[in-house]
Amino acid sequence: MKRKLYNDLLDWKKSKNRKPLLLQGARQVGKTYLVKAFGETEYRNFFIFNFEQDPILKAIFKENLDPQKIINDLGLYIGEKINNKDTLIFFDEIQAAPEALTSLKYFQENAPDYHIIAAGSLLGVSIDKQQSFPVGKVNFMKLYPLTFIEYLKAFDEDLLIDQIFNNENLSEIPEFLHHKLLSHFKNFLYLGGMPEVLQSYRVEKDIALARKIQLEILEAYQRDFSKYTDKTQAIKTSELWNSIPFQLAKENKKFKYSDVRKNARVSMFEQTIEWLKSAGLINLAYNIETPKIPLSGYTDYSKFKIYLLDSGLLGAMLKISSEIILKPNELFSEYNGAFIENFIASELVCLNEDQLYYWTSKSAAEVDFIIQQQNEIFPLEVKSGTNRNLKSLQSYSLKHSPRLMFRASPRNFLKSDKFINIPLYGISMIKKFM
Q1: What is the per-residue pLDDT across 142-192, written as a single tens digit (0 to 9) for each?
Q2: Which residues on neighbouring strands pair with residue 127, listed in sequence order?
Q3: Which of 146, 308, 323, 417 registers the highest number of CB atoms within 10 A of its CB?
Q4: Which domains does the chain have, with CATH numbers?
Q5: Max Cα-Cα span within the chain
Q6: CB 359 within 8 Å of CB 406
Q7: Are 430 and 422 in contact (CB under 8 A)?
Q8: Which residues does residue 411 pair with via DSSP β-bridges, in sequence order?
């Protein structure tokens, strides 16, 4: 499946300022698949070294981090000469070998001609704090689950993608195409964007098998909780993780520690939230009451919402039945629109909105997301149904007078004065419209 990040890898390859690349992302989002496809297509020679599958490799990095010695030893290990001519070297699961991570610094300083990509699922939580990290010596990229546009690409729906991206004047698209896109969108909400799930469904068309794979991914995450934390912390991580779907299912989705464990306090779970965030498993949206630049300066970090990295995994945790896909709008509104808000959060993160925000006022109005684009701030309200109510957006507009205000809903494209409705499936276009 072609990923958007592939083009960024091409730019990295051609860059005159290229450094060893550290590709981050949660487990199972497709890092290994992407780098293998890139290496085998764009280079004459491609070598992959997996430190989890082949622990013996760690010994090569134990005593000497001289790049040329490392290259020679790796060549001896595989029985093949490794040179720097049209060659990509891939260090996979590098979190299992901290010294290999440190070596990237010396490749950048002393052997910059080598093209090296390193990938790791839990780098933020598995590397010892005393371990030397190659700050300033590596390029960073992050891979997420597939976006809805990447899903359409995987299912060969390029013409539908064109309908979304060529609609710069925000005119309604033909109704039959709108309904076809909504049908795909419902499938995507259920399946989510984990590559193995989508690849299985694309080939087998077996929805039960897709759910089985989702549950296996969730089980792998639970194993990581125990593998990378002590027993006490693992229990807390599991408790908090399992509470997220039910917190999102509430009408008021603000996270409450007491919904994880009775009488719980911030100090009990603060480290747990940071662990899940560092592992790439959750996205946080923080509350602001005063939308001014920079948004981070007006943030109330004590009030926040937690979203899962993938709507399909959210559905699996909530045990949503696949028959809901066939119903007109039930999936959109199920659990108070939990899937829709979670989907929008994931898509915004993929648009480089690393930090998410939402707005509330003392009059109980709430706008689901606040987006800063250059020196402007825009409100985005998310609607899971076709309700035309704009109460919260209007309240925001009266207080802060944005140039444009946005709603994402199942409705078709619409622009009326300063108000823009974007169909849920077209949210990836929002920054272009700004």
Answers
A1: 999 999 999 999 999 999 999 999 998 999 999 999 999 999 999 999 999
A2: none
A3: 146
A4: 5-142 (3.40.50.300), 148-433 (no CATH)
A5: 70
A6: no
A7: yes
A8: none
